[in-house]
Write a structure and sequence with these properties.
Elements: H1 2-11, H2 15-30, H3 33-51, H4 55-82, H5 84-88, H6 95-109, H7 112-127, H8 132-154, H9 164-187, H10 203-235, H11 239-275, H12 279-306, H13 308-315, H14 319-351, H15 356-379, H16 384-408, H17 414-421
């Protein structure tokens, strides 16, 4: 909901501003691929440790993950600052939109370390079964975000008028607020996961994180590269089509976050049951989480589609953008059951430490099917709605592959193989 409010605020600046923020966010998260991999390894190993009731090991994993994550995020800051313009230029948007996107990337990257702290500690807490603390801290973060977006974009109450840059700074300040709260609670020992302290950094733990995390890193690189290619094709149809994609995703994020929630629940429970030597329980929890995600996301997708035009007009008063947005929402509403499978069951596999198969599924579905179909449709000079429709093929193929993998049960042996190796 906060994201929708932010888009409403930025949308008042026009389609170019919305496209710039969409581009900036996409590039920012593309460059966080390694950090996402550290988070995936953290979640899998912490969940497993809690399942085995080894809370000290969970604390050690969290500490080493935080150190690695902070180093990675600091290293990512420099290319974002120095090469912001050429990075933003890959989408082929008009000069004004590209310039605004570059400024958004440059300023948001200054807050990389704060983003890392939120990501790693949040992943650790959820893996330990504590989803309430990240919830209320997330609420604080989002309130800080929307307040600063409002005053910094328009320059209200004595604050400078920063436009799109104001949205980036607002995001960053909200990351800092969350990081400060999390670090205070963590070091004061008020969180479910403790502080590892001395002895946390060992070669064995680093190898485990790398072994589980590097396929997730490659998956993120493939995922983000595929998204860049797909959005480049969307951008071929103009700034309005590109802005519509960003608005449509934000509207449907109400459904997406439910899928991510069940993905986290599935990953946590699968990892904990495997740590407790209960693989049958892990299977049951995986199916339950996926079923709930399908029911929830399908319902929310249908409701969103019914009110698609009214919501789109509320967010931006541009007839062409609204028309594209409504088409995109209709297509994505159809894909919600498939997305629920990919989100949730993919999360269960990652929670089991099986990060390699989701990588394969992403390569086949996103690169092979979505981008492949989008290239074909663009070559045939079809309407941009066909480009959006390529998403359905992507999620259909990934859903089939991931269900087959989960049913095979091969993911149950991943942790054992990791132990035997290290």
């Amino acid at each position: 909901m906060i994201g929708i409010v932010s888009i409403k605020i930025v949308g008042s600046l026009g389609a170019e501003a919305v496209a710039a923020v969409t581009t900036g966010h996409r590039i920012f998260f593309s460059l966080q691929a390694v950090l996402m991999a550290v988070s995936a390894g953290t979640a899998a190993l912490v969940a497993r440790a809690f399942g085995a009731k080894d809370h000290a090991e969970a604390a050690h994993i969290t500490s080493i993950s935080l150190w690695i994550g902070n180093l990675v995020s600091f290293a990512l800051m420099l290319p974002c600052i120095i090469f912001a313009e050429p990075i933003a230029g890959v989408f082929g948007l008009d000069e004004e939109t590209t310039t605004q996107a570059a400024e958004f990337i440059r300023y948001l990257s200054l807050f990389n370390v704060a983003f890392s702290i939120n990501l790693i500690l949040g992943a650790s807490l959820r893996a330990a079964g504590d989803t309430k603390t990240p919830l209320w801290i997330g609420a604080v973060i989002n309130v800080v975000n929307v307040v600063f977006v409002y005053v910094l974009v328009f320059g209200l109450y004595g604050f400078p008028e920063l436009g799109v840059v104001g949205a980036a700074v607002a995001n960053g300040l909200s990351y800092i607020a969350g990081a400060v709260i999390l670090l205070y609670l963590w070091y004061s020992k008020r969180l479910r996961v403790g502080v590892g302290g001395r002895g946390s950094v060992t070669l064995r733990r680093v190898k485990q994180l790398v072994h589980i995390g590097y396929p997730a890193a490659i998956e993120q690189f493939v995922f983000q590269a595929g998204f860049v290619a797909f959005l480049w094709l969307v951008g071929y149809y103009g700034t309005e089509a590109f802005a519509a994609y960003g608005i449509g995703v934000q509207i449907l994020s109400i459904s997406f976050v439910v899928g991510f929630g069940f993905s986290i629940a599935g990953a946590t429970l699968v990892g904990q049951h495997l740590g407790a030597k209960d693989p049958d329980g892990a299977v049951t929890q995986g199916w339950h989480a996926t079923g709930l995600a399908i029911a929830s996301m399908t319902t929310l997708g249908f409701i969103t589609a019914v009110f698609a035009q009214d919501i789109a007009w509320y967010l931006i008063q541009d007839e062409k953008v609204v028309r594209h947005t409504v088409v995109f929402i209709y297509i994505m509403a159809i894909a919600q059951p498939l997305m629920a499978i990919e989100f949730t069951m993919g999360g269960c596999l990652r929670g089991a430490g099986d990060t390699r198969f989701p990588l394969i599924a992403t390569m086949v579905g996103l690169i092979g099917v979505r981008v492949g179909l989008a290239i074909l449709f663009t070559y045939l000079e079809l309407d941009v709605g066909w480009i959006y429709g390529a998403l359905i093929g992507d999620y259909l193929v990934k859903g089939i592959m991931i269900v087959h993998r989960f049913r095979s049960g091969k993911w149950k042996q991943v942790f054992k193989d990791t132990e035997d190796r290290f």
